[in-house]
Design brief:
Bound molecules: FE2/S2 (inorganic) cluster
Number of helices: 7
Strand content: 5-15%
Radius of gyration: 17 Å
CATH class of the largest domain: Alpha Beta
Helix content: 40-55%
Mean pLDDT: 95
Number of domains: 2
């Protein structure tokens, strides 16, 4: 398939690196927005790894998506500073409002919710990132705005 050919060319270009697996997975996700299932055997073959090893790494690192993301990607910081400022509540409210858990996408494909571990915005905890833009000091009003925005 086209996916397999594209992945094969990424693997060919990068397999000479030291520790190529993570950079290759990163590149594949950049290319497709997720790591397609068909990519795994191609990567395994190219790097002389078992398919299970590659799959294990993809599963271990939550940064790799196994399915395409929604139209919006909302990342909620769950690292220490944000935790101390109530990021658990923020995440709980968002999960409830959107009806999905972390690492899930709404059935209408509008939004994917993901945890992230520090956005470098600790001074403005709790923080999140919507489609690459950081949002600080999230309170209940801001959550409503975010939900309205991703649903629009
Ligand atoms: Fe959340 Fe740093 S801990 S931005």
């Amino acid at each position: 398939t086209g996916i397999e050919a594209q992945v094969a060319s990424i693997v060919d270009g990068m397999k000479g690196m030291e520790g190529p697996l993570l950079p290759i997975l990163h590149e594949v996700q950049e290319e497709f927005g997720y790591v397609p299932h068909e990519a795994l055997p191609v990567i395994a073959r190219g790097l002389n790894l078992s398919r299970a090893e590659v799959y294990g790494v993809v599963s271990f690192y939550h940064d790799y998506r196994k399915e395409p993301a929604g139209r919006h990607v909302l990342k909620v910081c769950q690292a220490e500073s944000c935790q101390s400022m109530g990021s658990d509540d923020v995440a709980a409210r968002l999960r409830q409002a959107l009806g999905i858990d972390f690492h899930q996408t709404t059935p209408d494909g509008r939004v994917t919710l993901e945890p992230v571990y520090c956005l470098g915005l600790c001074a403005c905890s709790p923080a999140a990132m919507l489609d690459g833009e950081v949002i600080g000091r999230i309170d209940a009003d801001r959550i409503d705005e975010i939900v309205a925005e991703v649903r629009a």
